[in-house]
Amino acid sequence: MRQKITDTLLRVATWLAAALTFGALFFLIAYILTRGIPYIKPSLFALHYNSQNVSLLPALVTTVLMVLLSLAVAVPLGLFTAIYLVEYAKRGNPLVRMVRMTAETLSGIPSIVYGLFGMLFFVTWLGWGFSILAGTFTLAIMILPLILRTAEESLKAVPDTYREGAFGLGAGRLRTVFRIVLPAAAPGILAGVILAVGRIVGETAALTYTAGTVAQIPESLMASGRTLSVHMYALSSEGLYTGQAYATAVVLLVLVAGINTLSAALAKKIGKG
Amino acid sequence: MEKFRLRDVSLWYNDFKALKDITMDIVSGEVTAFIGPSGCGKSTLLKSFNRMNDLVEGCKITGSIQLDGQDIYKDPNINGLRKRVGMVFQKPNPFPMSIYDNVAFGPRTHGVKSRLVLDELVEKALRDAAVWEETKDRLKKSALSLSGGQQQRLCIARALAVEPQALLMDEPTSALDPISTSKIEELVTQLKERYTIVIVTHNMQQATRISDKTAFFLLGELVEYGKTEQVFSLPRDKRCEDYITGRFG
Description:
The structure holds 2 protein chains of 2 kinds. Chain A is mostly helical. Chain A has one domain: MetI-like (MetI-like fold, Orthogonal Bundle), CATH 1.10.3720. Chain A contains 10 helices and no strands. The longest helix of chain A has 35 residues. By secondary structure, chain B is of the alpha/beta class. Chain B is built from 10 helices and 10 strands.
């Protein structure tokens, strides 16, 4: 009898938790869509921003640019460091412990701190000014620990029997790593990249201090630009274009969903080999 | 003629002496079985024939192991050694790629690029490993879709594709069902004409069925080594007799 009551209670609790989680997400998305879609008009995608059209196209371009550039800096660095840590470094190497500890510490730092660092170092000290480049490097440093740790975990998850098999055939370490281990780890590594994309797209604090808030398509890497999130933040804090801010949120949602779908398909393709 | 000539081979994992002064010759064109209880060093010795122990940190080896008269631990070309001495592992370990690419991996590693040559090598290896009939219509399919026994024969094919002279097998049937096991055993007897085969096994019957010579190891020592019939019918050493008759191990 008592057992039965506990069972029922637990079942209800599980359902309730699931319903609440789903409900909250659903409510959020529905809210954004109903608020934002009415404001999506062709003028919102004008090539140049002005206070009449409140165009988000420059921000969209900047976002894509920022994602690509930050990944281009952080992915090779993080991935090769992970390869070093897992495949080359000897166990108990003090350098490994240090890199790992640094990565763990870095991943816990709030993004505003990265912003402050980026402003002091890239913007001021290196004299890059508020620029796409300064933003890129700040974000790259921010997502580096994430890329490093997910890549490391994925490489570690590749069974040692694969490595043995390749070595046993006379393959060197380089060939083993790049032909056998890396393809097997690719889906996990890509999952890390997707998380990183999420962080880049959602970032505002670290960017306002480094890439600035200019609402035009950046003409060069040294020009300032605002991503969609920064754009949203600016619009809603100005308070004049709340509707357009929601419309931007809709575009952002679609963009993120698109990137995730694409990466999932890519991971599946690579994973099958 | 001896393929491998071992003289006073000792091996340490850090402070633990896993092999103690092993001296033995392994004759080409024969199947040599290594038997003994778990932890006796038989797999460790097998893995030093193609220097797979080099991958283990803290592993140190003394004495000499010669392959065709050349000390393999003095030759820096480890990949070349592993090409000449192939290995099949305890658990089937096909790579997560197509059947064709699995077999072609070895030849490609050693510089074969021509599609025609590769096609030929792959077919020949799969035929030699008695797995061609089951795979010829699905070469592009993932190797992981095969059954355990087929996977192990694929791994044998993969090892054969680099045209080795010797084949090391580390308990190749311990993860397989009886039917797959008998297929592999049959294959070993066919392959011994062309390859020197050393096989580690936990299964006494398997050793008597397929091997010409048997070596019995205990606690890192080579206790008894001789013709399989002799080792199993008239063991010289009491410990070997006790193990074979099932008194321990």
